[in-house]
Design goal:
mainly alpha
């Protein structure tokens, strides 16, 4: 039943993404171009690693041992490539997902109930919208990059990368809507992420893991950003730090 529920939720999310993009043709075109760009970049990076880097490494004794692992390095780089290719798309898309599903209104009501203030979506100023946003995205990319060194470990390297970098990727995905519900600035957002660290950790883990799937990774990235809207709602409309909310936010659970 749990697996059936998860597959049902994934199917519902896919239909939701399709519906959202059909209602906004400009966003659909934007996404299509970025997916094509991401796929093209990954194919070229993979070709470069196999045709240039691997032969160079294979020419030396020490390099010959490391050469077979260049494939896993390419996999580990995928989340970084996607973060760059989808820069400027992810933020409007996750907010659009919240609006389309009613999550934005529910988040504001939950925030208002906790603070006793008026439910109002916070718009970021120039500094937080651009400079701070760029810092968070860059930091997430650096964390993923260093974590990607774990890809040298055969078979389980990608899992270690996801375990080490997932929380930062999750934060990057919800940066704008998190500011929208009043967590503006790195310090306030950092405190909020720390308070719900394990939810961010596990949501990000699964998100990074499926984005490392060759070829379909960019499509998985779009799915992850859409799912981030549900993740954010589950975390910030529940009073308890429910670890299951992270998994449910990405792969399963009852749609709100």
């Amino acid at each position: 039943d749990g697996n059936e529920s998860s597959f049902s939720t994934i199917h519902t999310r896919i239909i939701g993404i399709q519906s959202l993009l059909q209602s906004q043709p400009g966003m659909m075109l934007n996404m299509s171009i970025r997916v094509a760009l991401a796929v093209a970049l990954m194919i070229n990076i993979d070709a470069f690693l196999k045709l240039v880097v691997t032969p160079i490494l294979a020419a030396s004794i020490i390099g010959a041992i490391a050469a077979p692992f260049t494939f896993f390095v390419g996999q580990a780089l995928q989340p970084i490539v996607f973060s760059i290719c989808f820069y400027g798309f992810d933020d409007p898309f996750v907010v659009a997902a919240l609006e389309a599903t009613g999550g934005k209104e529910r988040l504001l009501l939950a925030t208002s109930a906790k603070t006793g203030g008026v439910a109002e979506w916070h718009e970021m100023g120039f500094f937080n919208k651009y400079f701070t946003r760029w810092c968070i995205k860059t930091a997430a990319g650096v964390i993923v990059g260093f974590s990607g060194l774990a890809s040298a470990i055969p078979l389980v390297g990608s899992v270690f990368t996801a375990l080490l970098a997932g929380w930062a990727v999750a934060w990057d995905m919800v940066y704008v809507p998190l500011a929208g519900i009043g967590r503006v600035g790195i310090l306030r957002q950092g405190a909020s992420v720390l308070a719900h660290f394990w939810e961010y950790y596990w949501f990000g883990f699964w998100a990074v893991l499926i984005e490392e799937i060759p070829i379909v990774g960019p499509v998985c990235h779009v799915y992850n950003v859409y799912s981030a809207a549900f993740f954010l709602e589950r975390v910030y409309t529940n009073n308890d730090n429910n670890l299951a909310s992270a998994m449910e936010g990405l792969l399963g659970g009852k749609e709100l």
